[in-house]
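Module 6 notes. Inverse folding takes a fixed backbone as the condition and produces residue identities as the prediction. Think of it as a translation problem where the source language is geometry and the target language is the twenty amino acids. Below is one complete input and output pair. Work through it position by position during the lab.
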């Protein structure tokens, strides 16, 4: 399959005052989705400061006890290819902010390994996903993920779909190594895997993101985020001036 052209990604816009207000709002929203969804509830996590605040909120009352974490399978949308104890590791951040504070079975947590051959690791992570999904072919009527959390860079990248990199043309693999474009190698879910979601939830804060959010939602720019072709709903959770109410 060829990569489609850039397109608008309007979705539903939620505008909140602060990053903490965003975290509180999304925590309540996610808890309700987990309660109502059929298990396993697969969630793709994102790195960054805004998701960290969400994870810290989920680790506290009432969400740490109210959510039945045994029904949840956690994946990562992307990861820096560094050991899990490295401060730059998305898993390390998530473990400190959330996992170490909740009762989730270790067998329900699927971090991307950060050591070895990146290409082999990407292949193994894809195989793990396919085993969980039960088939090698993604069905638009059967999304892999209930929720995919994503951020948005000022250059329009999301996950590790980095401008100018070969992963932007990948429409067959579910997971790929990204060897250039950043100081460290990355492992990232590809467009097909990220698109296989009931909801893609962008978490974006700060006035510095206002211009790129507007351009992506209106389709007036050609960046990695505008090549997403979601099968489900898109929600933009924003705060601290990242967007204006419609």
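Target side of the pair, the amino acids:
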């Amino acid at each position: 399959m060829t990569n489609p052209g850039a397109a608008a990604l309007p979705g539903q816009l939620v505008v909140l005052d602060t990053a903490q207000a965003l975290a509180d709002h999304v925590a309540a929203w996610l808890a309700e989705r987990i309660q109502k969804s059929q298990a396993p509830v697969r969630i793709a996590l994102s790195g960054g400061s805004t998701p960290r605040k969400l994870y810290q909120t989920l680790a506290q009352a009432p969400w740490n006890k109210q959510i039945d974490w045994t029904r949840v399978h956690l994946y990562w949308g992307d990861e820096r290819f560094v050991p899990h104890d490295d401060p730059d590791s998305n898993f390390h951040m998530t473990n400190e902010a959330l996992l170490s504070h909740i009762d989730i079975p270790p067998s329900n947590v699927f971090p991307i390994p950060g050591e070895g051959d990146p290409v082999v690791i990407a292949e193994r992570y894809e195989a793990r996903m396919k085993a969980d999904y039960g088939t090698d072919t993604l069905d638009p009527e059967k999304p892999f993920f209930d929720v995919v959390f994503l951020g948005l860079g000022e250059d329009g990248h999301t996950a590790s779909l980095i401008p100018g990199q070969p992963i932007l043309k990948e429409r067959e693999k579910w997971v790929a190594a990204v060897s250039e474009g950043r100081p460290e190698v990355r492992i990232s879910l590809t467009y097909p895997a990220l698109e296989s979601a009931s909801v893609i939830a962008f978490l974006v804060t700060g006035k510095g993101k206002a211009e790129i959010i507007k351009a992506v939602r209106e389709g007036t720019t050609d960046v990695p985020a505008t090549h997403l072709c979601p099968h489900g709903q898109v929600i933009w959770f924003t705060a601290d001036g990242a967007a204006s109410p419609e």
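Reference fact for the lab report: The first helix runs from residue 19 to 36.
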